[in-house]
Amino acid sequence: MNKRRPYVRSMDGWWRKNPYFVEYMIHEGTALFVAAYAAILLTGLVRLSQGEAAWTAWLTALKNPWYIGFHLLALVAIAYHTYTWFKIMPRTMPPVVVGGQRLSAWAITGSGLAVAAAASLGLLALVWGMAR
Amino acid sequence: MKPTLKRSNAPIFWALFGAGGMLSALLGPMLVFITGIAVPLGLLLPPDTMSYPRMLAFAQNWIGKGFVFAVIALFLWHAAHRIFHSLHDVGIHAGTGAKLLCYGLAMLGTVVAAYALLTIGF
User: Fold this and answer.
1) Do B26 and A46 touch (CB under 8 A)?
2) pTM score, whole prediction
3) What tens digit of pLDDT does each residue of A70-124 get?
4) Which of A58, A110, B101, B109 is most buried when burial is the number of CB atoms within 10 A of its CB?
5) Which chain B residue has its CA at the smallest distance from A130's CA?
6) In sequence order, which residues have a C-beta less than 8 Å from that of residue B35 and are 6 or more positions away?
7) pLDDT (tens digit per residue) in A5-26
């Protein structure tokens, strides 16, 4: 048994003391919604492989207000993930040099968000076109 | 000096994290809106958008299969990696067990998705 009891500073709630870290914890926390949404889709896929009755039961379950509420929260969380993903991108990707000048952080974030918006609208149009 | 340097497996997990993060950033919000809000509430899209024959045909198509597999697997790997690395931030000193649990669940989900897609057939 070690008799020394060195003082170890408590780290409880360290991130709550600084708005920068609160934001960090929120954007890391979006992963919980990504995981839960993937689990819901995976359940749907398994139900689809089990036949029509199973699939329809899963689809009907999604109409439950708890599921709707969860999906509304997930929509907000994952949209926030989109925003932070491209906001951080200038620091997570190697520097891009265009015409001898380093591409500005704003240009990277802005084009990322523009591509995300275009991809989302493209997906909606594709689904709409296929279902019509 | 060691004769052979041990290669790190971190780049694999980081690449999966990055791919899943990019895919969920580009399409995640719209996918949640379509499958979780618009279709269940009958908003905007036709009521039979996700009917059994349509979704079966989609999952039997090569492109549809690939899309469903990529979304489920990469979302899971992205989330597993982020949650694993956040454990330290919330005061959990994560070791090999936590790593196995996080990546193991993502692996399990990937295998189940692949199995279901193969069961659905072509």
Assistant:
1) no
2) 0.92
3) 999 999 999 999 999 999 999 988 888 988 898 999 999 999 999 999 999 999 9
4) B109
5) B49
6) A41, A44, A62, A71, B50
7) 888 888 888 888 899 999 999 9
CB nearest to A78's CB, from B32, B113, B119: B32
Choose the mutation target among A15, A17, A34, A108 for the interface with B, i.e. most B CBs under 10 Å: A34
A97: helix, strand or coil:
strand
B26 shares contact with chain A (CB less than 8 Å) = yes
pLDDT value of residue B68: 97
Residue with token string 């993937």: A38
What pLDDT, in 10s, does the model give residues A47-78?
Answer: 999 999 999 999 999 999 999 999 999 999 99
| ipTM, interface predicted TM-score of the complex | 0.93
